[in-house]
Amino acid sequence: FCISNDERIFYEKITEKRMYFLPHLMSESIAPVHKPLSDRKWDVFFIGFNNTFNVEGLDWFLEKVYPLLKKDLKILLVGSATNNLKIKYENVDILPFVPDLDEIYENVKVVICPMFQGTGMKVKVVEAMSRGLPVVCNERGVDGLPDKTLCGCLVTQDAAEFASYINKLIENEEFYLKKSLKIMKYFRQTFDRKKYMQLLEKLLV
After folding, report:
1. Which of 110, 149, 141 is nearest to 124 (CA)?
2. What tens digit of pLDDT does each residue of 158-185 get?
3. CA-CA distance, 116 to 138, in Å (whole number)?
4. To 10 degrees, what angle do helices 173-190 and 123-130 make?
5. Which of 102, 146, 153, 167 meets the CB 3.0–4.6 Å disulfide criterion with 135?
6. Cα pseudo-dihedral 103, 101, 147, 181, rounded to 10
7. What is the crossing angle of helices 173-190 and 159-171, to 10°?
8. Which tens digit of pLDDT belongs to each residue from 15-57?
9. In terms of C-beta density within 10 A (0-12 exposed, 13-18 middle, 19 or more buried), how is residue 41 classed?
10. CB atoms within 10 A of CB 182
11. Pairwise CA distance, residues 140 & 162, whole Å
12. Phi/psi at 20 (nearest 5 deg)?
């Protein structure tokens, strides 16, 4: 079993054995965020553990993308990837640790996943998708997903385009809701717990 569809294909080729895609599955109690956009506290949300790939992505976002965002956007950075930040940024809140992310997700609009290295499915992207939150990311952000074009994520390597996606999601509610619905639809199709339970029963019983 592989949590990443990319890894499933890779290992099938080198082992010549049948491999199965078994992605990160969310609790059935997780529901899309229904709180009105106007009532949410933060516009942009980043979360990341203190590893090289997350730190590199966060530094790129703050250096290249942040200056191109609307100045009144409220940004939340969560996780130990923020430990090495030396500069204070206007309208940016930093929380090195949060014991429960449910309340955070209820109060954010857009999730970002700036990453240029690393492999495997990004759990932070799956968590955002499960709640119907639009995701703006680099190409590594959609690693592991079976279909990277239909997943609903806004993907780019270019800082200016990355910023424009965020600005448009915040400014254009129709565009925001369209992306939210698309990402929810993809999540329900790709991360259907019953489908994978049936697969496990078939293969392991």
Report:
1. 141
2. 999 999 999 999 999 999 999 999 999 9
3. 7
4. 110
5. 153
6. 0
7. 100
8. 999 999 999 888 888 889 999 999 999 999 999 999 999 999 9
9. middle
10. 16
11. 14
12. -125, 140
The answer to whether the CB of 121 falls within 8 A of the CB of 145 is: yes
Residue 171 neighbours by CB distance under 10 Å: 10
Nearest CA to 139 out of 124, 160, 153, 123 is that of 153
DSSP summary character for residue 29: T
Q: What is the pLDDT of residues 72-126, one digit of tens each?
A: 999 999 999 999 898 899 999 999 999 989 999 999 999 999 999 987 899 999 9
pTM (predicted TM-score): 0.93
- Note the residue count of the chain: 205
Residue holding tokens 């976002």? 61
Contact by Cβ (8 Å): 76, 93: yes
172 neighbors 51 (Cβ within 8 angstroms) = no
* DSSP-derived secondary structure letter, 205: -
* Residue 94: φ, ψ to 5°: -125, 125
